[in-house]
Amino acid sequence: MRWLARSKRLLWILAIPVFACSRKPAAPKPAAAAAPEPPYEMRLGKEIYGHYCQSCHGDTGAGDGFNAFNLDPRPRDFSDAAFQKKKSDADLADAIRRGGSGVGLSPLMPPWGHTLSARQIDDVILYVRALKKVPEPQPPAAGAPAAPATPAAR
Q1: Which residues contact residue 14 at a Cβ distance below 8 angstroms, ignoring those fewer than 6 apart?
Q2: What is the tens place of the pLDDT at every residue in 8-26?
Q3: Who's near 44: CB < 8 A, 6+ residues apart?
Q4: Taking Cα atoms as reference points, which of 50, 53, 46 lies closest to residue 75?
Q5: Second label for 79, Cα 20 to 30 Å away, from 15, 56, 89, 119?
Q6: pLDDT digits (tens, 9 = 90+) for 127-152
């Protein structure tokens, strides 16, 4: 009988580590919501923009690259929402392909049509469109009447 009691005790001692290790691991904490990665074409456009356009048009497309101060007229501000709205993708592609003098603008912008493929030009345009600044809403002027309440807000 003694050997039976000892074997039960031994069985419990051996079982404890098994039960301790078989516990389900805690679920991993969700990572902070990271910004989604831009599409592949936009990343290619950014790379091409950085190589060919950034020195004049600047990192943010504001026309403030390190060469911009040597140019008259200054390079176009791609972050300007009004400019972005006014120009179609075809207009931008034409300017990139034919250069400034080819579209009646500054002759200081070289034509890239023999350097870049049509696909690369489309990728650059996709990236340039992403440079547009979203206009901030203007606060109401002092003394201006408040906006009327909408029926859904009541």
Answers
A1: none
A2: 666 666 666 666 655 666 6
A3: 120, 123
A4: 53
A5: 119
A6: 999 998 766 666 666 655 555 555 55
